Amino acid sequence: MAGPRGAGRAAGCRAAPSRIGARTRGPSRGERFRALALFTASVTFPRAMIEQTMTYALLQTVKATRASISPTLAANGLYPGQDLLLSALWSEDGITQSELVTRLGIRSPTVTKALARLERVGYVRREIDANRSRRVFLTAAGRALRHPVEQAWRAADERLTGQAGQEQLAALQLIVGLLADSEA
Length: 184
Prior knowledge:
Shape: elongated
Oligomer: single chain
Order of helices and strands: HHHHHEEHHH
Distance between the termini: 98 Å
Number of strands: 2
Structural class: mainly alpha
Strand content: 5-15%
Helix content: 55-70%
Number of helices: 8
């Protein structure tokens, strides 16, 4: 029969800890994080097919350029896209909503909603003409937006020119123009 636990040992002596099931101190949270960071940095993931397309590259360029223009728009109470609508009116004030839809290549409800916002803030006014068409006119405040908005667009072009060069941008503009014409 077995004796009491620890019987047979010298007084004051402890048994050596068993390696089986013994808890050992593992790496700290920081050490685990650094190991994961090193592992992640050493692993390269293949780019998805979409990210390798010209369309993706063009989209990323447009997003970056639009982001550089957006602060000026926001400072003037404009949403992205409303600058294009105003630009059409700066070229020809008093055109109909349907002409705006055609020139901008966007849906009629989108133009109607954008015009309602611009009218609310006092940048445009709409009138119904003798043919029962809605004509859109710039107010003085809407005309005053031309300089800051066009300046933001010029600055975006200057940044692109600084990054790619005038000749490369001229070639790109020609190619993009050809592609846009082929889509129409």
